[in-house]
Amino acid sequence: MTYCLPPVGDFISPFAVFKELSALKCGLFRGSNMAYAELENKVATCFSEFFSIDSVLWYGSGTSALYAIFKSYREIFIKGELAVSAYTCPQVISAAIRAGLKVHLLDIDPCSLEIRLDNLSEYPDIVLLSNLYGLPDFINESLMQQSLIIDDACQGLLSSRAGGFLGAREGTIGVASFGRGKPLSGLGGGAIIAKTSELENPESKAPILLNSIIEKKLGNNIPQVSNSFSLWIKSFLYYYFSSPWLYKIPSSLPFLGLGKTEVDLDFPMEELAYLQLATVYTQLKAVERYKTIRLKNSSKWEEVFLRYDLTSPVSVRKQKGNLSIVPLRFPIVCKSSKQRDSLYLALLKAGLGASKSYPQVLSKYLEFKIPQVRHEALDGAEKVANCILTLPVHSGVRDVDFERADLIIKQILG
Ligand SMILES: Cc1ncc(COP(=O)(O)O)c(C=O)c1O
């Protein structure tokens, strides 16, 4: 059997989900809308307590949660432009375009991966903070007075800045995702999260928006989805095939598209399924353990790369203080694309879970070469797309993997 670490991990055992459902006295399958609503309330209470928020609205994916915000914005304020990093998940842009918003792609700092908001001539209507790989983006106070800030915590739900979990920071509307390879690695799903104080803040556009989104949600009859059986199977497959001794099998099946970045303007708009909810709940119970491991593994990668004079954006951000970074993957921006490609190929061949992340800046996707999307020079984002390498920090990474990686890096850079 070939050893092959998956780039992302920490999937929860389906038996643990089963145990939690039994403890909650909930069935294995959805059964009725009543059963769904009961589980939804229990999970929402636990989720809200953990993240110190008061509002959580569940969606079928992070993309559809973003779409709900963008669509309500468009309906209330008629027009608007979203300012967003040119190097992030393309589905963010798909959601904005589908909702009828314009998009302004902004450059990023290649050392910190932070969005560059400093050179804007006017305040954007909406600013989306991507918090890439779990690195907390800075919230500019004056911008917060003028623009709607969306704190996209799809990759950074477990990190915090100035005391607030990403997605749950004051003055913002947060978005979470529970997809494969997210901080709460689940079976898919997403949420809009916010503090009630946001509903009372007369200075911000967030209350009008949140109230309209909540109203729409309440008017929605949850469709009867009976996909729990296939989700149970998916749960077994995710859990067992994320073992480094089995991962080679799914990773060599091209139709699974593992690690591929897709652009889909017709993304499905579904409700969060019963088993997806139960998985989020079970993940939350185990999250402290995963957090500790990710922090420890991130520090180990940091040590390895510093030995070869490569500073990670994780170290750069740490210098900005008062934040806790729980990375989704450990990012390193190499000195050249040639250096990145050599490291990537060697680490991949050794089965160490290296990934090149998103293949290109968002302005290069054909789907986004349209008048609705504008951008200026994107030198920083281009540099990142060409030179970034990300490494796994999940609980499947062993001490010996760091030692093997160190030897490989030494051969190439030493
Ligand atoms: C930063 C970011 N935002 C939004 C999304 C969309 O989330 P989902 O996959 O749940 O639709 C992703 C997904 O990778 C993401 O990385």
Give an overview in words.
- The chain has a domain at 14-219: 3-Layer(aba) Sandwich (Aspartate Aminotransferase, domain 2), CATH 3.40.640.
- The protein is built from 14 helices and 13 strands.
- It has helices at 14-23, 33-51, 62-77, 90-98, 141-146, 197-200, 206-219, 228-241, 248-251, 274-306, 313-318, 337-349, 379-387, 399-413; strands at residues 55-59, 81-85, 102-106, 126-129, 148-152, 160-161, 164-165, 172-177, 190-194, 323-324, 329-333, 373-375, 388-392.
- The strands form three sheets. The protein has an eight-stranded mixed β-sheet, with helices on both faces. Strands 7-6-10 form a three-stranded antiparallel β-sheet, with no helix packed on it. Strands 11-13 form a two-stranded antiparallel sheet.
- Strand 4, helix 5 and strand 5 (148-152) form a beta-alpha-beta unit.
- Helix 3 packs across helix 7 (206-219) and helix 12 (337-349) crosses helix 14.
- The longest helix is centred in the C-terminal third of the chain and has 33 residues, at 274-306.
- It is globular and about 60 Å long.
- Bound molecules: pyridoxal-5'-phosphate.
- Pyridoxal-5'-phosphate (PLP) binds next to helix 3 and helix 4.
